Amino acid sequence: MEKYFKKTSQSCHSCASTPTVDLEKNEDEQRNKRNRTIGESSKSTLTDIDNLQSDPGLRIPISEFSFNIRDQIRRSYLQKGPCQPRNHDCPKSKFGMKDRRFNPRWFDKYSSWLEYSIQKDKAYCLYCYLFGVEGRGKEDDEAFRRNGFSNWKKPDRFDLHIGGPNSAHNNARQNCEDLMKQDQNIHFAFHVQSDRTTNAYRIRLNSSIDCVKFLLRQANHNENISSVILKNAPENLKLTAPDIQKDICRAISLAITDYIKEEVGDSFFSILVDEARDISAKEQMALIIRYVNEKGQIIQRFLAIVHVPETSARCLKKEVEQVLSNYCLSHSKIRGHGYDGASNMRGEFNGFQM
């Protein structure tokens, strides 16, 4: 406190002592309040789940526990079951001219959720305590959730509390059942599947970004490249237009097919042909070539994919011959061909024949 308040002389100490004492008192109260708050927060986080309060009238509301451990606390209470002291001698209360009290036989009728507090002499609902929402539902729902129910002359309120399929009680019951069988719950399954899909997407995206970063680093290391690309290129010569990108892809495709032609040379080869329909409902044919290179290794290359007007054997044969002609490959060098099990491909008389 000395760095906030200057020391006063002895003569004026009496006149200044009162406000200084009040300020120090306020500081102490605020400090104690902060310590209390931190202590309570730590207590809720470090709750001993094995020693939770069993009496429903003395329990701490679920909302006051740390959010990270609420499901653990709920699961612990559900595993223990509702507090039902069947052998307790419940005290009597005056209702008009008659004495009434809690009847332990009600535990048999509402065995899964009905609880009784010995300390408060009141009935509670375990489901609503665990998953009830404050401020929602009827007044009776709030009584069973937090305040307790003690109107023993009206046991029909138990059935009214249960209500219809969409009542607060039944929604809380469904949440409890879902919590106890989370692995089988459809929402949990969708959540897990969504997490897996998201993780797989992130891996793919990060891999692509890493490849781009690697290529950019290679360009930065080469001053001859980095000085003429992207932002350093002329406005009309950045080579980023879609048509230019497609032309680059075509050039790469031609370079690859030229390499395949040179590798095949005059050797014998086999072909694999298959037809399929793309997303736009157009028929297309894929052609794969299989051969042995100079090192004696069996090589299999994807050669081309072309659209075809129909998938008859005659049409497919015509397209195959056209593709081989375009790449200067003679069909007389073919020593084998493979297809799928479709009748237009494997028929003895009307099937695909080279």
Q: What does the model show?
A:
- The chain is built from 12 helices and 8 strands.
- The protein has helices spanning 13-45, 70-80, 106-109, 126-131, 139-147, 157-162, 168-180, 186-221, 223-226, 242-264, 313-326, 343-346, and strands at 93-95, 98-100, 114-117, 122-125, 269-277, 283-292, 298-307, 334-338.
- The protein is elongated, with a radius of gyration of 40 Å.
- The model is unreliable at 8-21 and 34-46 (pLDDT under 50).
Largest β-sheet summary: 4 strands, mixed
> Could you list the spans in which at least 5 consecutive residues all have pLDDT below 50?
8-21, 34-46
* Beta-strand residue percentage: 5-15%
Structural class: alpha+beta
Cα-to-Cα separation, first versus last residue:
101 Å
- Tell me, rounded to a whole number, the average pLDDT: 77
**Number of helices, where a helix is a run of at least 4 consecutive DSSP H or I residues:** 12
Count of individual beta strands: 8
Radius of gyration: 40 Å
Query: In percent, how helical is the residue content?
Result: 40-55%
**How does the overall form come out from the CA principal axes?**
elongated
Question: SSE order in H/E notation?
Answer: HHEEHEEHHHHHHHEEEHEH
Q: Count structural domains.
A: 3
Enumerate the strands of the largest sheet in spatial order, edge to edge or round the barrel. Answer: 7-6-5-8
